[in-house]
Fold this protein.
Amino acid sequence: MAEKLTADIYDLPTKNGAFERPRSVFNSRISSRPGSQFPAEKDRYVLYINMGCPWASRTNLVRTLKGLESIIQLVVLDWELFPHGWSFTGRDGTATKDPLYGFTQLSELYFKANPEYDGRYTVPVLWDKKLETVVSNESSDIIRMLYEEFDTLLPKERREANKLGGGLLPRHLKDEIEGMNSWVYDTINNGRAYEDAVKKLFVSLDGVEEILSESEGPYLFGKYITEADIRLYPTIARFDVAYYTLLICNFWMIKEHYPEIQKWFQRLYWDESEETRGAFRKSTDFNAIKKGRRSPPRILFENGPSISGL
């Protein structure tokens, strides 16, 4: 057990130098259907996040966007990734300890769910207080559970079926949104080996810029916010303040080279309307983003910035 608790949590790169998020081993699903093992209930689930992590950020964003604050408890861990993993420290307003069990490390929660667990202790974590286990630690699954399965507990105007445009995943746009989610994940959200990734990253940002310039509305798929906007937003929010220098993604800055993306980002960040409930701004903590990004051991600038961008 001690070896697991002190495992090198930073050891994320694969042999080819890629930084890839590990595949989840907790992949259950909350459902509003009768008889579900994990039914949609108020005060049953806890969402563990830290404000620096983009994957956790989008789950927090959807929780606020849907108005689930009184239904799903939120616990915020320290923004710093310690050698033993994410921790409860009380720093900067984060939780001093796990409110359920008094744990000081997120790893302890994983072992509570499975004493034989030997994976990484990642956020987000969606925890079931009744069964005392992890429902899921995969952010893409969690966000869909949050916006699809709790609607019966919400006022009618917040339910997906009643939203203008068809909700966050409209049937008529589902294939297009999932197609975009796929290439955004592969080339923008999830780092591959540096030399290969950095070029594909900016080609993809060029593609997003073009999509926004041709969109019929201010968002990726027109007049209404969709899941595609939610999935892209946390990365764009972090790009100029953290990724540009610390992850050496330094061909261009968003604010200087991508006016449509910058305008899209600002619109979402500052939106305080009933539609967003300020969810984008509330889920974005620039101090945690900057503090939580650990500088790489060697800073290399061979791939940028572009001379024409200076």
